[in-house]
Specification:
The chain is mostly beta strands. Helices cover 15% and strands 38% of the residues.
């Protein structure tokens, strides 16, 4: 009975997150593609404190406003090879109802996620070559394999996809600027993609990776995510992209098999 509850809980979490991602995607599908707009020099601007600590070349002031933040985020170069830990917490009526802690490895367009669910079940997934492989620890090595939906790698990590903010109309971005988050200089952006729903993202200026995110529904916290312990390039290569039966799908530094 306990195993059945764990399986049902895992399925519910996946379905809820998938629904949120798809909702946000279709909501913004027909929004205009953002383009660079030069900021008004007379307007109040959020300026990067230039220098080594800011993550930007010394002497270059990069302006961040609701009008320019989309272009800035789009221009950030994201690490292609790394590992890190992602922690996600879900809330209901402001009260925590579950957490997911995921170990993530990425290299060459492939992503491996090993997520410990609030039930204690451990979910493993590998996304690459437009394919998703998914299995659960202690489930006899049974592996689901099928086409990977768009953003499957983000979904396996339970991430809000900050690229969604690139499709927002500018009037749906009430705030943007630079903020330090967990000791990292970040681009901060707040968006209202849906009525009564506010999403906040912190994107590292060093790695281009999402390091924190929050979602509020009717002013009450519904979702919180943080990432830590980023190592780039990927320093663990053996067995990372291997199925339970020993099949090696991809070896960093080599082509997929």
């Amino acid at each position: 009975m306990e195993d059945k509850k764990r399986t049902v809980m895992a399925v519910i979490i996946i379905v809820v997150v998938l629904a949120a991602v798809l909702y946000s995607f279709f909501l913004n599908l027909f929004s205009p593609t953002p383009h660079l707009e030069l900021p008004d020099p007379n307007a109040s601007q959020s300026m990067d404190p230039v220098g080594e600590e800011s993550g930007w070349p010394e002497g270059v002031a990069v302006e961040v406003t609701p009008q320019t933040v989309q272009s800035l985020i789009a221009s950030l170069e994201r690490y292609e090879s790394y590992r890190r830990t992602v922690a996600v917490e879900y809330f209901s009526m402001g009260q925590s109802v579950g957490t997911v802690t995921a170990q993530v490895w990425a290299d060459g367009g492939w992503t491996r996620t090993s997520a410990t669910l609030s039930s204690g079940a451990v979910e493993h997934s590998i996304v690459g070559d437009d394919t998703l492989w998914l299995w659960y620890e202690g489930d006899g090595g049974r592996v689901y394999a099928g086409p990977a939906v768009e953003r499957a790698a983000d979904l396996s990590q339970r991430l809000l996809t900050y690229e969604d903010v690139l499709a927002l109309e500018k009037q749906s971005i009430p705030a943007a600027g630079y903020e330090e988050r967990d000791g990292q200089p970040c681009v901060y952006v707040e968006g209202t993609a849906a009525p009564n729903c506010t999403e906040r993202y912190w994107v590292s200026v060093h790695s281009g990776l999402l390091v924190a995110a929050e979602m509020e529904q009717d002013g009450v916290m519904a979702y919180s995510m943080t990432a830590r312990d980023v190592v780039s390039p990927l320093d663990e290569t053996q067995g990372v992209f291997t199925l339970p039966d020993g099949t090696v799908l991809y070896q960093p530094g080599r082509e997929s098999l």
